[in-house]
Amino acid sequence: MKYATLAVAFAAALSVYAVPVQAQTITSAPPPRPCANTSTENVHSFVLKNASQASDANEMYTALRNMLQPDNRSYLVASENTIFVCGTPDQIALAQKMLNEMDKPKKTYRLSYDVAEMEGTRKINSQRYSIVAIAGQTTTLKQGSKVPVATGSYSASGAVGVQTQFTYVDVGMNFIVSVDELANGVRLSSSVEQSSVAEDAASNSLHQPVIRQTSLKGSSFLTPGKPMMLGSVDLPGSAHRLDIQVTLDPLP
Q: In terms of pTM, does the model score above 0.70?
């Protein structure tokens, strides 16, 4: 009975100091509007049709942002090649005009390389390599063989004989080219390499061949349809030379 009386008194004391809890309504903030003034501005999406690389879309988007007003909101969705612009009808029209000028198909060219081995004025042999290149992009062409080169050897525990490790070297012709359209013509940047295994080392039992290499790198301005001599290299150990010529033709 004594403990029951104490419990009643303790409950009465709590009721005196208790503070009623009021229900609170938690509301989430409204999502931000895409445009600052929806009465005069709207969102327009521009799909880039000719941006084949991420760098192309970034360049067009950067130019567009620099031309629009600082308070214009714009977004580039790289995975969709789409630019979203928020602005007035006049600003949307300006963005459309700029993208129409920038988002154009890039021209395609055929590069025909003639690699000729000459002895004086006599042509000993000649090979032609044709490459289709898109303006602003790099194209690579390789033709040849992979030559094994021993890099080390070891003897495994319990194994019979010696194990030899090899790496492989590309031997043959290697072209790395890119073309850029400029106001005064087409600029070609190219790297042409020819490599071969020296005949006196072809039967090397140690698998350490001697690789002979001829390399020509540089930039040139080309006229469509007109051949240009890129370089002429004397071949060591012989009276021969290597002439490298290129012709550029635009494709439809």
A: no
